[in-house]
Amino acid sequence: MSEDNKKTSVISENLLKDFPPHSDEDWRKAVDKLLKGKPYEKIMLTNTYEGIQLEPIYRLSVLKDLPQIDDLPGFNSYVRNTKLEGYTATGWQVAQEISSALPMELNKNLLDALNRGQNAVNIVLDKASLKGKDPKQSRENQVGKNGTSIATLADLETALDDVVLDAVDIQIQAYHMALPYATMLMQLAKQKDKKIRGCVGMDPLSYLAEHGTLPASLKETYDDMFQLTNYAKKNHPGLRTIAIHTQPYHEAGASAVEELSFGFATAVEYVNEMLDRGLSIDEVAPHVQFNFALGSNLFMEIAKLRAARMIWKNIVENYGGNQESQKIYMHVRTSKFNKTKYDPYVNMLRTTTEAFSGVIGGADSLHVGCFDEVLRSPDDFSRRIARNQQLILAEEVHLSKVIDPAGGSWYIEKLTDELAKTVWKNFQITQEAGGMSKFLKENQAQEAVKKVATARRKNIACREDVIVGTNMYANMEEKFLTPRKRDYKSLYEIRSKEIRKPDLKIEIDKDDVVESVMQLWQQGATINQIHTALHQGTTEVQPLEIHRASKFYEQLRNKTEKYFQKTGERPQVFLANYGTVYDYKGRADFSRGFFETAGFAVEAGQGFEEPEKVIEEALQNSVKIVVICSTDKKYKEIVEKMCQAREEMAADKILILAGNPKADEEKYKKAGIDKFIHLRVNAYDILADLLQKVGVE
């Protein structure tokens, strides 16, 4: 140590002696004194949708009861990472989804992405493919919808042309159709003499939860899962064949607790089915991948991924799995749930924080959604921005050069532990109820998610949960993005002409299903021929209610935009400003922001100090909705006079008071005030009612 450093160290030690640490009790007494009798629990604690209360401050003492706190990355609980070196050796995989409608289009966009920083293939299948239908058998709006139309081996060969199959991980999001698409990929690899790695994973329950109908019986899909996993462990050990997608629960409004507990309950059901068919836990666990969604609660999402590693380790260990089998593989993608139609460029900020939480949480691979993915088909610009968000985190922020930066944070460590314990309790409830498939069939999972989603909706309506650009800080000057709608009719016609069913005798050897299907692909079979040969049953449950959090609030703005296009004007609000600027400005600004979220045009009064002038300006104005803005003290001088004047003039006005004058609320209501607006009201209900009253349907 240099002399300067020694001096600095001595000075620091001396300063610490002068400021001895205070105990938790000392801190609490100081806080209670400042609160002056107000309840600590109500003022200082924050409740989350996970049922966890967040403290205002976390001190070293919170770590004393955490058995995993001394674990290093790559050891024991794996809370800090499953790899000793974290990202410093290989980094996370940049696995952007490529969801182009046509195989040739997919290939073009994929090669461009791989040449510009992406290092994994991530293919999303269209609706027709996931239903096991050839294009001609499908509805027009299902071919190329939400993914790529791949019906034959030739389609996949086109899609992956010039991609070196053993140089990158390949993911195909196939759900219950994993055996057909994994064997298609295996056959292509066989023709090119390559081994493949990545994930084409079976996941019938997540698809069933999202769509309500599975075009196969669960037994058939579990048989597929066994055949595929058993073949992969011998021939493609780097291919994960079981993929648990928790995104449907997340996109239906679930908290991290439901997302993780239902994900692990799904995984346990799959593991049990594989064990029953003769595989061991060490043959199954390495072929499992978890696909999580990343929401906007930064620290909760970091804790979610850390907790997931602990829980999966615990589950596999209880099955008797070895240390390598106890390591979880996590692919994560940014959420669609919190993305917005209005002020859509804010979505870039949302995906950046979500990607950041995924990396800090230790994800193995990551997809960052395009900022316009909930509005239209992404283009080169939106795909490039999304991909570059990952590259900036790795190359400019240097997150690829650190190992578990969250480790040791008193807040994150405690939150991780609390979340893991809460998830484990919820997971046990699911298991005691008979497992995940039964939980879905009895509608218990759907109801649990709906309960959280309802609480979210209420908080968004009341603006306790802020969605920037939607229920707060609306941009009335924004220019809306140009729609890019796919021509599904043309896609249907193109693909129907391209795909022809060959006259094949479809026979599958039940003792060697994978090889049989691979041979059928080589002979030119179509996805429908394979699907029909493998699956005859169906399974149905009540589907989850997938939605975007902001959509119901956006519908208010949609109405005013249609009204504007039809009439050339917006529904209006007049601010009756009384007193000095100091008196009315705060509530006038609040009122403007309140009404602009629904697309109202807000006109501000001049601001008079004489009540008569304010009343005259407001009531003789042509605007129907009048909002009185001033201080509670000033309201005593004008509110009743305004209401009386409206009655005398028989003015068709809706009078609204900005503020929450608790002591005078009933008096003002009796005088004639129609509504009050302030931080505690249900803004959505008030705005929806007002739009109806002024004729905006």
What is this structure's SSE topology?
Elements: H1 3-18, H2 24-35, H3 40-44, E1 46-47, E2 53-54, E3 93-94, E4 97-98, H4 103-114, E5 120-124, H5 127-130, H6 153-159, E6 169-173, H7 178-191, E7 198-202, H8 204-211, E8 213-214, H9 218-235, E9 239-245, H10 247-251, H11 256-276, H12 281-284, E10 288-294, H13 298-319, E11 330-334, H14 346-361, E12 365-367, H15 380-395, H16 410-432, H17 436-441, H18 444-461, H19 488-498, H20 513-522, H21 527-534, E13 539-540, H22 551-567, E14 572-577, H23 581-596, E15 601-604, H24 611-619, E16 625-629, H25 632-649, E17 654-658, H26 665-671, E18 675-677, H27 683-693
Parallel strand pairs: 3-12, 4-5, 5-6, 6-7, 7-9, 9-10, 10-11, 11-12, 14-15, 14-16, 16-17, 17-18
Antiparallel strand pairs: 1-2, 8-13
Helix pairs in contact: 4-6, 7-9, 7-20, 11-13, 11-16, 13-14, 13-16, 14-15, 22-27, 24-25
